[in-house]
């Protein structure tokens, strides 16, 4: 399925879970705080802005935020929280679509770069971030670490969460670095609701190489938004990439 078919009106309606899951204060607030610091006095651009989970509170902190989003239903949901003047959004994919202006920060959260299903598209996403940033600008990616150590030989699926009313499992195609996430929600009836989304997983070292191809250098990598140390046991990371700052000579200084 194409991404615009996955993130349809029904998915947009069910996406927001105020106060819980990815909208829980302990999940959302550290991300907004870190991004506000990284944006500084400049503007921020969110790739795959969705329903505004991060953009709305970040704009509330005084950071000018613009978004790029492929799904019109997700943007319509965002519009119930913020109008176009407050958070402008350009409809399109995050690998090729451009937004007007120059930014100090581009960010892509909650594993969304993996929604691009080829390595070439993921590389183009980095290049698209670079073309929106001024010298010294930063690109921030939040991404999970592939859990292949949990995949026994001969098996193609892992259960990554099991709790009352919910089971989450991933099926892997390790040859192509593809994974499909299956989200089963159910109650006391015999009916269950399934939501599936395809991804291309990326190892941290591969992500770093994509960054270098676009002119970035890795500035920091932590296990979460609070700055916990990234280790071999971390299941996700927040990586900050930065473009080189402008050279003094480019401004006419330092010449004999």
Automatic annotation (TrEMBL):
The Methyltransferase domain, residue ranges: 45-137
Cited SUPFAM superfamilies: S-adenosyl-L-methionine-dependent methyltransferases
A Pfam family: Methyltransf_25
Keyword Methyltransferase in record: yes
GO terms of biological process kind: methylation
Any one GO molecular-function label of the UniProt entry: methyltransferase activity
Keyword Methyltransferase: yes
Keyword field: Methyltransferase, Transferase
Family annotation (InterPro entries): Methyltransf_25, SAM-dependent_MTases_sf
Name used for this protein in its record: Class I SAM-dependent methyltransferase
């Amino acid at each position: 399925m194409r991404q615009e078919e996955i993130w349809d009106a029904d998915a947009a309606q069910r996406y927001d879970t105020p106060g819980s899951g990815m909208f829980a204060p302990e999940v959302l607030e550290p991300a907004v705080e870190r991004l506000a610091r990284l944006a500084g006095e400049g503007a921020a651009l969110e790739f795959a802005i969705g329903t505004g989970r991060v953009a709305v509170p970040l704009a509330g902190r005084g950071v000018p935020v613009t978004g790029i989003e492929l799904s019109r239903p997700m943007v319509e949901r965002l519009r119930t929280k913020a109008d176009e003047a407050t958070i402008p959004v350009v409809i399109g994919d995050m690998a090729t679509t451009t937004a007007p202006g120059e930014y100090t920060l581009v960010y892509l959260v909650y594993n969304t770069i993996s929604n691009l299903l080829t390595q070439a598209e993921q590389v183009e996403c980095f290049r698209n971030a670079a073309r929106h940033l001024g010298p010294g600008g930063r690109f921030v990616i939040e991404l999970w670490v592939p859990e292949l150590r949990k995949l026994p030989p001969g098996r193609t699926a892992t259960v990554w969460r099991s709790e009352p009313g919910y089971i989450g499992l991933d099926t892997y195609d390790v040859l192509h670095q593809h994974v499909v996430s299956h989200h089963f929600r159910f109650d006391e009836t015999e009916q269950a609701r399934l939501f599936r989304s395809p991804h291309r997983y990326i190892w941290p070292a591969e992500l770093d190489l994509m960054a270098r191809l676009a002119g970035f250098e890795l500035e920091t990598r932590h296990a979460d938004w609070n700055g916990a140390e990234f280790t071999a046991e971390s299941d996700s990371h927040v990586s900050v990439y930065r473009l080189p700052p402008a050279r003094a000579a480019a401004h006419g200084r330092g010449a004999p």
